[in-house]
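Table 4 source record.
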Amino acid sequence: MATKDRLILVCNDDGIFAKGIQALIEVASDFGKVEVIAPDRQQSAVGHSITIMDPLRATRFELKNGMVGTAVNGTPADCVKLAHDQLLDRKPDLVLSGINHGSNAGINLIYSGTVSAATEGTILGYPSVAVSCTDFDENADMSGCQEAAAKAIQFIFNNGLPKGITLNINAPSGPLKGLKWTRQGDSKYVDEYEPRVDPHSRPYYWMTGRFQVLDHGEELDINVLKEGYGSITPIQYDLTAHKVFGEMSKMEL
């Protein structure tokens, strides 16, 4: 398929006006026509939630560099679903989500709206990629993430993706040292809730805590990122523990 004939849907979870999505638009534009449909506000850590009790509204906005995008008052997954069913005049050849401000390696990808937008694309049958920068700075250098995204896009157009597989990319800010295939590192957040009192003497709680790595290995996304490389992890939405299912299915209940 010629570049001019491809349609690429770009989404994120930081909101349609985030700098990261603009960086991803720049990359996507080299591979096809870009349609931007993203949340109208910050939607980090909403996971794969969807809106079912409120109406969804879609508003067109002018973005940078002459681009026009559609802002949706819903979650990242809502945006991809609505794009698929109503907002696009034809089905996309690729779904890209990001570039997120902050890592989505390890357990982070479970909570991530960025990853969920890409996963929703996969569920709907489109090859999909999530891209994240480990640097939370709004002005972080996204050039390495852009290069990693371009490599993944070219890989997909050359090779395709197996059914049900999404690519999850993470990379440090700055130039790309290299991109390595990885697996999701076993990790968790040790959550703590700090009790506080508001000016009206009402108690509330502010989540703090720390990130804990529970896994070891050179092929972990977390460790590859620590070494300064970008990571690319094939992930799936099928949550069945297939090995355990094979064992348990032989056991009497």
